[in-house]
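Example 634, ligand zinc ion.
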Amino acid sequence: MGIIEEVFTIELPVGENFRIQRCRYGSEFIEDKKAKRISIVSGIHGDELEGQYVCFLLGEWLRNNTNKIRGIIDIYPAINSLGIDSITRSVPFYDVDLNRTFPGSKNDFLPAQIASGVVDVMRGSDFAIDIHSSNVFLREIPQVRIAKSQEETLVPLANLLNIDFVWVHDAVTVLESTFAHAMNTIGTKTLVVEMGVGMRLGYAYGHQLLKGILNLMVHEGILEMEPPKEVRFPIQSHVGEVAYLNACCPGLFVPAIEHCQVIEQGTVVGHIVDPLSGISKAEVIAPIGGILFTLRAYPIVYEGSLLGRIFGSNKEEK
Amino acid sequence: MRRFDIVTLESPNRAPLRIEGFEFGNKDSKGPTVAIVGAMNGDHINQLFVASGLVEYLRQKESEGKILGRILIIPAVNAYALNMGEKNWPLDKTDISTMFPGYELGETTQRIAGRLFETLKGYDYGIILEGRRDQGMCLPYVKLIESGYEDMESVKDLGLGFIHYRPHEPTETVMLQYNWQLWETKAFSIVFGKTGTIDHNASSEVHTAIVRFLSKRKILDFALFEGRVSNIIDPHKITIVKASRAGIFISSMRCGAQVQKGKVMGKITDALTGETLEEILSPCEGIMTCQYSHSLIFQNSIAFRIASVELCCELV
Ligand SMILES: [Zn+2]
């Protein structure tokens, strides 16, 4: 059985404590220097719920398979617990994105204290998997995003996760303030998974990632058993390029195709329409062929709003 | 005065967003030029108030023929957020003030920032009226980033008491001051007020400081009394006084007050039982420059900040 503990707590003004809870499996391995430790993290953004489901599935699996555990498995389903319980992406009251506040500080405002508490609690973990579900605007296929500087260490690990896509990108300075960056800096190999869409669950994705996490844990000796079968190998971003589809005008975006399709250059991805006049204002055309790995889920758009992303291989482009 | 749209952006259903500019002085004037940017967030009412007050003031000065240079004032960047009590861009909740220098092929707020920045390039001086990002309330101070293009001399002309001078933080590379400096505008920020409301004392101090700046920099032909001699400080050397408990916060001080070691600055009471949980004492002597401004306080929040010539202590 897992041990449920409050690992971070801080007084709120009126008769309540803010808290972060953890369920730990394999605590008997704490003294074992060779045993590895993994942290499964979700809910840094309060409106992203896919990770909560993965935490449930993993907990359920571990309860039934305690005899296979050879390391420490920590599950943190709700980092921004105030946000999760109130459909709030940011830290309520402060309205600050927790994932732009790391590594945080004990001497700063509440969000920074939470961030610093999270880092302290997970310090010493060999691995962390930070599960996000995009946001309410975009739907994503299961993917791991890795900053270029971490490519060598993290890509082999990401390839074990039974996801569809590994995206290595050039780090932007603001990303230095993320959980993943903070943890990678202190030696915890941290993977950021993005999948699904905010405020909703995609049940299939949850099961897909569960299989990947089990696979990774078997590979790293945290579980002792046969690795899961038919683990998929993700598409690697370095073999191609990502094209962005941004809205050219405001309106209601109506997709013409399903998410996650392989499409040709010139395919109509959707239309931007005007409900008032009944006019279709723009046709959204795929600039390259490839897989539509991101598709807008929230239909209201302004000029510039992201409608989708296509990953195409280099040879298709020219 | 010339009133014009700097950026307009169509909305799906709302009336278009307009970022309006108010320009003073002759277009062919050889005098120095300055641009002043007001509320970039929807809760920066104080910044809006000071900027619009300057528009009114300069309209009068222009009618008296007192404008020597050229002045552009942009009171509100994010009018959409101001009009609905939001802090950020109302649809995707991104913060325009962290989208600089902008990107014309990017997301909505990157495009807005980019178009605004096109207009702001080329000014001699750039003044950003900045609100706080936390629940604090401060004595107005200048925030000047060390980028190699900063100009300390002109900043001193404001006559404000404190100049926070330090290298930029990573997150500031996407903010206006840093990017404006890279484009060789002598840019700085004045941080003041309390989010969501107007602090009249701070507003009038900032208004006067900007008028003094315009006068000393020969943009405005009008003489004012001298301001303060500015103290240049490293903001990391300000003593932090934290609340050890959460509850109802009652301050007994005003920003700018001189405090002695051991003085009671405020207290925290239990929000349910009313008992006093903590009396907050000053750990050192100095000037209380900032305080928590919301009535409910969280545990370990920063209740007060005290500036002193020598950092007297640091609470961990
Ligand atoms: Zn997220």
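Summary: Chain A has seven helices and 17 strands.
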